[in-house]
Amino acid sequence: MRVLKKWSNLPIRLKFFSVFLTIVLFAGSGMFVLNHQLLQVARDNDKIINHSVPNLTTQLQIKSTIMERINYVMLYVTTGDEELHKKFIEASERAKSIEAQLKKNALPHEREGIEQFIIHSEDWEGILSNNVIPVYQRNNPKDALDTLNSQAQPLAIELMNEAEELSQQKIHEISNDNKKVLNNAWSSVQAGYIVMGGTLLLALLFSYYISRSITNPIFSLLSGVRRMTKGDFTTQVAMKRQDEWGELSKAFNRMSQSIASLVEELKQANVRLREESHRARESTRLKSEFLANMSHEVRTPLTGIIGFAELLHEDAEGRLSPAQKNFTRNIVKAGEHLLTMINDILDLSKIEAGKYELEMSRFDMVEMIRNTLIIMQAKAEKQNISLVIETKYPTLQVMADKTRIRQILLNLLGNAIKFSHAHSVVRIIIEQSEHMVIVRVADEGIGIEVEKAEKIFEPFYQNDGRLERKYEGTGLGLALSRQFIELHGGTIGVESKPGEGSVFSFYLPSGKREAPTPDTCEQACKKEPLLVLYTADFLGSFRDFSEKIQKGFRPFLSFMIESKREAIEIVQKHPEYDILVAAQSFQAGYVDMLEGISEHTQGRIFSYIESPLRFVERGQVMRMAEYIPPSSDDMSDIISKTT
Ligand code: ADP
């Protein structure tokens, strides 16, 4: 057990190394045993080839020399040919050398038999040399032949049998040795198989173990990551290992702990922010109510003052001096300026208090702009400025509050003329995208620094204190314009370069679809579900978000998406549903994803992005989807906008 524990705590590289070493050692020692056995087989084989086989050959040769010798002697004593006697002597010498070799090569267990054979052979040859040949040479051929037939011949046969027995013994031994070699070779082959099989088994077992010891921690880390993806940031991975995986799991656990505490902090910060924004909204509402009441109270006497000053200025009886006429004109002008300002403040307060109501109607934007331009023409001509309309649309129907849109346009054109140099051009460009009508007012005037581009939309902000004296104004026009446009569900912003000019653009929903109506269950519950697709960065806000949209009556299906492809796959399954794409912040692929989705749905596309967008980003989003501003406090608002 302790060894196993020690083993599992080893660093992965050491584990790999020791496993590799074990397999190599096992295979190496197997090969060593195998080689040893093969060597033995080769030696046995060598013994057969170099020793036993030559011995057998010698034994066979000896048999033929016995035959040879007796035949020479037999022919000699019958023919008397001396040549045959010589050949006998030569054969005897050959036989002696063969016998000497036989004796020399004899194995210990053969030695006795061979020596016995040599004694018998010498005895036999003694009979031939001493009892047969000399008797014949003493002219006693008959006795010589008798001795040959009665003694030498039977002994030769016995000797041949003895030689035959010796060679049979040798053949038997060779066959035994051969069997032994074969057996040894077969055992070597078997040992080879065992070593190979064992190595293979060992390698398999180790690779199974190693792969398990790598994949197991990967799986447990993966399931931890999955739990985190589903929002369980407190998730911990249990891994009691001391190796690299153990380190990784500890790091993962530390990371999830810090994410969990971050999420907790964020939630608390969110709650605090919400409380604060609620308080801020409440105080804004009170302020706006106060301002609305005040403005109303001031407007009535002011209208009276202007009326009486105008009467005075008309001077029906001609009693005013030129200086006095100048005073009365200034009173009227200042009164009118004050009245405009008060009216603007009143409108702003109403909007902020949520009491402003648009008077929506369908009208032709191009025509309205042409008419507005006529009003501004005189003012522009005074400063030698030309007003030009650029559009490819002869008419453009929109659903909006015509008076307010005209007011916005007057303000933008008024500013463009006010901040332009003489002999320059102010262009009004009218464009259209799928859901939006876009109007741009471009001048070649003094321009605005980038960092001021958002500030000028704040109430009472005027770009430069010094300019205030040079250019008339209240600092309320743009603030009011933004409020009016946003009430329409649109957006307004500026792109500018100091010294080169500015382009103010507003995007207005073209109102091809009817304006949203308040949500009720009768309307919303009957609709198909809303498809809510949210990006991974929105995960933290999703729980709150979904709780809030549940307050709306429309059923919804939600999916987390990590790529444009995933989003399209989901949309393709429900092409008829309306889609709401929610994200924490505007990111690079967001508009591209909206575009991808729009190609696969027949439903409407809504975009909800929690953190505020820059003007350009808003414009990009609004070209592809209907934009739901994050200011919606009660999220059932969102649902009502999608119904
Ligand atoms: P007002 O024009 O009455 O001062 P606005 O809200 O219309 O108030 O404008 C706020 C400020 O924005 C202006 O005082 C000016 O500094 C700046 N501004 C507006 N339009 C332009 C423009 N076309 N060129 C340069 N600056 C501009």
UniProtKB/TrEMBL annotation:
Q: Does the keyword Membrane apply?
A: yes
Please name the GO terms that the record assigns under molecular function.
ATP binding; phosphorelay sensor kinase activity
Broad EC category: transferase
Q: How does it sit in the membrane?
A: Multi-pass membrane protein
Q: Subcellular location, in the record's words? A: Cell membrane
Q: Which reaction does it catalyse?
A: ATP + protein L-histidine = ADP + protein N-phospho-L-histidine
The chain positions of domain Histidine kinase read: 293-512
Alphabetically ordered keywords of this record: ATP-binding, Cell membrane, Kinase, Membrane, Nucleotide-binding, Phosphoprotein, Transferase, Transmembrane, Transmembrane helix, Two-component regulatory system
**UniProt cross-references to PROSITE patterns, sorted A to Z:** HAMP (PS50885), HIS_KIN (PS50109)
Q: Which Pfam families match?
A: HAMP, HATPase_c, HisKA
- For this UniProt entry, which segments traverse the membrane? 12-34
| Any single Gene Ontology cellular-component annotation | plasma membrane
EC number(s) given by UniProt: 2.7.13.3
Q: Where is the HAMP domain?
A: 212-264
- PANTHER family, alphabetically? SENSOR HISTIDINE KINASE RCSC (PTHR43711:SF26), TWO-COMPONENT HISTIDINE KINASE (PTHR43711)
Q: Write down what this protein is called.
A: histidine kinase
